[in-house]
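Consider the tokenized backbone below.
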């Protein structure tokens, strides 16, 4: 069975400009992989309704789309409006959610500011924010989470089991060689084992090149067969002592 697929979209001028590291995308990709979800795309966009909506026009290419950022109450927080535009619906206040937010934030004089977070795209289901602040929401196959990493991680962990799929197995090993010396083996591996993804990641050390090889598949039998074949082929090409566990 093919693994579930996902895209991760991070929203924020500060992300696109490089002023803030996009740690949310990396964290979500690793977390989703552990649940058996294959991330096919990572993207970062500015706080612009048209750009976000255009990206989400392709949401049906993936089983799930995860969006982080732009849920605050400042003028550049436009994610709710952008999601509404993508689904061709209005933003409407969810009365019960607005009342709850007003009550929680009234002691700090932020009742009306917080109530803005209850204006969600029509048909959206709110997702509670375990650490306070703006709630997330889901609409169709789109899941919208806060941009603050601690809040995003806590919110995702609260709903993570909804996305569990067949686990994606992985094999990793490092070889003291350059990619050019083994590219023919990697190409043949991909041809022989189409159900397995073959990745190679070179680096250059003080005493010469090294390549990390990673095989991944949701098909455990296919992964085992590909791993055995690749280890034999690389031993023939390089000698049995050139590899080590990554």
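A designed sequence for it:
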């Amino acid at each position: 069975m093919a693994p579930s697929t996902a895209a991760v979209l991070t929203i924020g001028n500060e992300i696109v400009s490089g002023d803030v590291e996009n740690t949310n995308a990396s964290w979500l990709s690793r977390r989703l992989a552990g649940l058996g979800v294959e991330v096919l795309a990572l993207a970062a966009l500015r706080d612009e309704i048209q750009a976000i909506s255009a990206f989400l026009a392709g949401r049906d290419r993936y089983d799930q789309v995860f969006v982080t950022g732009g849920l605050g109450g400042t003028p550049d927080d436009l994610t709710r409006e952008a999601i509404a535009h993508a689904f061709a619906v209005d933003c409407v206040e969810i009365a019960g959610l607005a009342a709850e937010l007003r009550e929680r934030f009234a002691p700090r004089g932020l009742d009306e500011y917080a109530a803005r977070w209850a204006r969600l795209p029509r048909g959206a289901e709110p997702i509670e924010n375990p650490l306070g602040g703006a709630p997330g929401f889901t609409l169709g196959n789109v899941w919208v989470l806060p941009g603050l990493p601690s809040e995003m991680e806590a919110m995702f962990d609260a709903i993570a089991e909804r996305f569990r799929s067949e686990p994606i197995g992985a094999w990793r090993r490092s070889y003291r060689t350059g990619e050019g010396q083994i590219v023919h083996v990697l190409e043949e591996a991909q041809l022989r084992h189409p159900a397995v993804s073959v990745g190679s990641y070179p680096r250059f050390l003080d005493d010469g090149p090294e390549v990390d090889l990673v095989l991944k598949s949701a098909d455990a039998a296919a992964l085992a067969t590909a791993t055995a074949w690749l280890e034999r082929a690389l031993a023939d090409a390089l000698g049995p002592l050139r590899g080590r566990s990554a």
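The mean pLDDT is 93.
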